[in-house]
Amino acid sequence: MREKVRHLAFTGIFIAMSVVLTRFASLRIAIGGIEGIRIGFGTLPIILSGMLLGSISGALTGALADIIGFVLSPMGPYFPHFTLTSSLYGVVPGIVSLLPFHSKTLRTFCAVAIPQVGVGLFLTPYFLHTLFDMPWKILLVPRLVSVPLNTIAFTALILSLFRVPAFAAFGER
């Protein structure tokens, strides 16, 4: 019972962190009246949730953070496509972190890089292009810079967190 409460508490903390970091501590660039690019650390708590608590908690963290964030600070209409992308940021690291890697650094890098590339570089721009007919060039060029930088920064931050005793036990998962 105690472990379930702890799990739920961490999920709630990750949701709150993601909402704050995404909606209030990110650089949001509108393109044609719609948020086209967001630069920040909002997906980091979702990735951590997936890695530390599993794919289901990661998916719930991403989905609830997106929905709560939209209610608190909408930019444009609600589209479930972006709730899906947000939840994938939690699902993929949860799956990748279960795979056998010889190195914690490589496992962490893959758990961060795969959703950053798959979701951040391909899926989100695809939805923005399909829903709003935004030009590919405008969508992809900034992401070609931000995705590698985010991947390196997130990997370094997560590995640093795993050195903190409170997170060390989770990092052994």
Automatic annotation (TrEMBL):
The chain crosses the membrane at residues 6-25, 46-72, 78-101, 108-128, 148-170. It comes from the Bacteria. Keywords: Membrane, Transmembrane, Transmembrane helix. The keyword Metal-binding does not apply. GO terms for cellular component: membrane. It holds the Pfam family ECF-ribofla_trS. InterPro entries: ECF_S_folate_fam, ECF_substrate-spec-like. This is Folate family ECF transporter S component.
